[in-house]
Design a protein that fits this description.
The chain has 142 residues and is an alpha/beta fold. The protein is 12% helix and 25% strand. The protein has a domain of 95 residues: Phosphohistidine domain (Glucose Oxidase, domain 1), CATH 3.50.30. It starts with 8 loop residues before the first strand and ends in a 31-residue tail after the last strand.
Length: 142
């Protein structure tokens, strides 16, 4: 999908239904898993099975790459979280801590700040994800 670089609304593929507004956690690789904040929307290039433990902690998913049959789409539906995939450039337009809205029914991501985000987020949103298993290189989680 191609989106304007400075647009506040990004289009992608609607892959898991629902809408959610929350702060973003931009995670570019498994090396950044320790930067994931529980209760946020996971924003990443794509996902693989190594990313699955993060899904239990997120409110939504947005990716640069992927479609309806991609790993992230399937896992998002299993966890019941809204997801938009294949935006092409979400990781270049959103920064961690920025408020975004994911519409998994329409396939849109809206970047913006509402009056509610001027206040500190609830404490549960600011807890880092603890003790995530990592891919030990053997093709399975340890």
């Amino acid at each position: 999908m191609r989106n304007e670089e400075n647009s506040d609304t990004l289009n992608g593929f609607a892959v898991s239904p629902g809408q959610v507004t929350a702060l973003a956690s931009v995670i570019l690789s498994p090396d950044d898993f320790d930067k994931m904040t529980a209760g946020t929307i996971l924003v990443c290039p794509t996902t693989t099975p190594a990313w699955t433990p993060l899904f239990a902690q997120v409110k939504g998913l947005v990716t640069d790459i992927g479609g309806i049959l991609a790993h992230g789409s399937i896992v998002a539906r299993e966890y019941g979280i809204p997801a938009v995939m294949g935006t092409g450039n979400v990781t270049r337009q959103v920064v961690s801590g920025q408020e975004i809205t994911v519409d998994g029914d329409r396939g849109t991501v809206t970047i913006g700040v509402s009056s509610s985000s001027a206040n500190s987020p609830p404490a549960e949103q600011m807890l880092p994800v603890q003790s995530l298993p990592t891919d030990s290189g053997r093709g399975r989680l340890s």
